[in-house]
Specification:
The structure holds two protein chains of two kinds. By secondary structure, chain A is mainly α. In chain A, 77% of the residues lie in helices and 0% in strands. Chain B is built from 15 helices and no strands. Classes of the chains: A mainly alpha, B mainly alpha. At the A-B interface, helix 1, helix 3, helix 4, helix 5 and helix 6 of A face helix 1, helix 2, helix 4, helix 5 and helix 6 of B.
Chain lengths: 287, 289
């Protein structure tokens, strides 16, 4: 008993020894200042006195905040399902195609390596009113449009998100597909099930755990489209692609600490809730 | 199965391949685009990009090959724009320092989480995962406040230090370290190896794929930093390449093309060299713990 206890204490000591540098840094640079932000979210910007939920009311009734919220939600609602379905279809096909499937998978991953700054120039030239895309469209006698300065800007953003994340999600799906035993398929084939049936009855149910992680990761990556959006269109892009990230950036420039604090807390709550809710929802189906 | 049915299946498969290859080409097109543009002379660029530059009539019609390939643009960037070097060097310093810092902090951290038990471990690890999931906007203000407090705003440290303590690499490496068989470690312990020795010999060696995965993912992320330098660095001479490129006006398209490609090259090299680890790293995030 005594040996066991001293072992346990040793274990604790060693473990803490290894994670200590990381924990100290995380506390100093993230956790403690974040608690300060939570405090500020309940205080006046100048007076620093307790003002209750005043900041939250200010933020939630702010028209710019509502617009940004609407766009961010709309963006996630459109592009995440699109990306997930598209990457699943590609993964299912590529998984059994040998070396060429492997190569193509790597090709789809390349955009991950292309810095946002390098594509800005291309985006500007392709989606300009007199750009490459309109040139092709007019050649096909299709109506051209001013992509960056109309509602179409939203779809340019969706496209760049899919472009950037397709390979990433294909890899995740292929990893998920790899965990399904070939024996199950063999058995079902012997029983005369068709390919489509196999997909619905075996592949889909077995991929549910992957669906959870892929949804969450795709959601988190969706915040990064801000990079392309900001570099191409600046602080105030077309209304249709004005995202929460733009708004926070502008608040920051105006030093609206009170709004930023409340906004940060709201975002924390929403992101945590979404991640937990998704886990709950998929979790039930998995069991 | 009938012959006709078989032929139909084949035709379908070829169509899918064709679509996938076309998509693959489209995905890589930005790279070709940069290469072609960077090799064009000034006159040709003016002509090709004329419609966008002048804003009147016609459309950009981008060729598949430059008419008169020239390396002038590269000479221009490498010889005549000292600011390119400053920014390139800023990017190298920032990325290098972050990865080194992450190596020193996160590798032991991940090892501690993966191989030892201590009170509140689960809670702490969940907190790490939650932190890794938060978008930058959540910690933007808190980061600013702490950096302001210790007087690091407007220095490269303002970008480096918060990134060093990102919990993402801890999570990735944890997934790999957990997979090292217990028996190996136990037998080393019986042979009298100390905990630090075990970490340095077995952890670093057997966990190397995990460490490399985190580093490759990290490089691609930090070479591409936008939000952090934009928020914490007012002094433009400290900016990384990622913020410098968009400021080159279209009038100097040649420079912009060449500089964009030069920025892309290090990331592409890391991608090609570390592709296997990159894929492992991506998959590590998807493993359900």
């Amino acid at each position: 008993m005594c040996v066991y206890n001293s072992n346990k204490r040793k274990n604790t000591f060693h473990g803490l020894f290894f994670i200590l540098p990381s924990m100290v840094g995380v506390s100093v640079f993230i956790l403690i200042p974040y608690l300060d932000v939570v405090r500020r979210s309940f205080a006046g910007a100048v007076s620093q006195t307790f003002t209750g939920v005043q900041n939250y009311i200010t933020v939630l009734t702010n028209p710019a905040f509502r617009l940004a919220c609407k766009n961010t939600v709309r963006f996630a609602a459109v592009c995440i399902p699109l990306l997930i379905v598209l990457s699943l279809a590609i993964a299912v096909f590529l998984q059994r195609q040998g070396p060429w499937g492997q190569r193509l998978k790597s090709v789809y991953l390349i955009p991950m390596a292309i810095p946002a700054a390098s594509v800005v120039l291309i985006w500007k030239l392709v989606f300009d009113r007199h750009g490459l895309l309109n040139g092709i469209l007019s050649g096909l006698h299709v109506n051209t449009m001013d992509w960056m300065n109309t509602g179409a800007a939203f779809w340019v953003l969706v496209f760049s998100y899919i472009w950037k994340n397709l390979g990433y999600d294909v890899i995740l799906w292929i990893a998920g597909l790899g965990t399904i035993s070939e024996n199950i398929y063999e058995a079902a084939r012997v029983d005369g099930a068709g390919e489509w049936n196999l997909f619905l009855r075996i592949t889909m149910p077995n991929l549910l755990p992957s669906l959870y992680t892929i949804s969450v990761l795709s959601f988190l990556n969706s915040f990064k489209v801000f990079r392309e959006a900001y570099l191409v269109a600046g602080d105030y892009p077309n209304d249709s692609m004005y995202l929460l990230q733009h708004l926070y950036n502008n608040w920051f420039r105006d030093l609206s600490m009170d709004k930023m604090a409340a906004g940060a807390v709201l975002m924390t709550v929403v992101v945590s809730l979404l991640v937990l809710l998704l886990e709950k929802a998929w979790g039930k189906d998995i069991e | 199965m009938t012959k006709k049915h078989n032929r139909q299946m084949h035709a379908k498969k070829y169509i899918i391949w064709a679509v996938l290859f076309a998509a693959g080409f489209l995905v890589c097109y930005p790279i070709f685009f940069l290469v072609i543009g960077s090799l064009m002379g000034q006159v040709e660029l003016k002509e090709v990009l004329g419609p966008v530059l002048s804003g009147n009539g016609g459309y950009v019609n981008f060729p598949f090959m430059p008419l008169f390939p020239t390396l002038r643009n590269y000479v221009g960037v490498l010889m005549d724009s000292p600011e390119f070097f400053v920014m390139f060097w800023n990017s190298v310093k920032t990325t290098g320092a972050i990865l080194l810092g992450q190596f020193l902090v996160s590798v032991p951290g991940a090892w501690g989480f993966a191989r030892y038990d201590f009170p509140f471990k689960r809670m702490l690890f969940t907190l790490y995962i939650l932190l890794m999931m938060m978008p930058f906007q959540v910690t933007m203000l808190s980061g600013y406040l702490v950096l302001d407090n210790i007087g690091l705003l407007d220095t490269l440290w303002a970008v480096i230090l918060p990134a060093v303590f990102s919990t993402f690499p801890v999570f990735i490496m944890y997934q790999f370290f957990v997979g090292i068989p217990k028996a190996i470690i136990e037998s080393a312990r019986i042979d009298g190896a100390g905990e630090l020795q075990i970490f340095l010999i077995f952890g670093l060696r057997l966990g190397a794929p995990g460490i490399l995965s985190a580093m490759v993912l990290g490089f691609l992320e930090y070479w591409n930093l936008i939000e952090q330098p934009l928020t914490y660095l007012k002094d433009q001479s400290l900016w990384p390449l990622s913020l410098y490129l968009p400021n080159i006006s279209l009038e100097q398209a040649g420079t912009a093309f060449a500089a964009s490609l030069l920025t892309l090259i290090p990331a592409l090299l890391v991608f090609l060299g570390g592709q296997e680890y990159l894929e492992q790293g991506i998959m590590a995030a998807a493993v359900k713990e």
